[in-house]
Design brief:
The protein has about 120 residues and is of the alpha/beta class. It contains five helices and five strands. It has a five-stranded parallel beta sheet with strand order 2-1-3-4-5, with helices on both faces. It has helices spanning about 15-25, 35-45, 65-75, 90-100, 115-125, and strands spanning about 5-10, 30-35, 55, 85, 105-110.
Length: about 120
């Protein structure tokens, strides 16, 4: 059922992060949550869903955020979808890498609700 809200895809293996993000964002956005890069790619590749934004964790088992990013950006229908990395990794080299490959933003966990919404609203037009 379409509730009229813009859809954000959250890719994070941490269930707690799913709940935090949903609580922070559900007033303005519909948050679709998946726990792995593989699940996200299955969801995105079926062609029935193109989110307005992807929030992507870097550290995940099986397929990390860097690989998910490159696979999403390799699909023509998904190239224009902005991706914001959300991560507990607190290294300037990771942030630089994210921007170098074309990430829309880089947000360190734990995040503040107002900051998260502000950053998302700057990316989603």
């Amino acid at each position: 059922m379409d509730n009229g809200k813009k859809k954000i895809l959250l890719i994070d293996d941490d269930e707690t992060q799913h709940q935090i993000a949903e609580n922070m964002l559900n007033a303005e956005y519909e948050v679709i949550k998946v726990k792995s890069g593989k699940d996200a790619l299955k969801y995105l590749y079926d062609g029935n869903f193109i989110p307005c934004l992807i929030l992507l964790d870097i550290l995940m088992p099986e397929m990390d955020g860097w690989e998910v990013f490159s696979r999403v950006k390799a699909v023509s229908l998904l190239k224009s979808v902005p991706i914001i990395f959300v991560t507990a990794v607190n290294a300037s080299t990771e942030e630089k890498r994210a921007f170098d490959i074309g990430a829309a933003d880089f947000i360190k966990k734990p995040y503040d609700k107002e900051d998260l919404l502000s950053r998302i609203n700057k990316v989603i037009v």
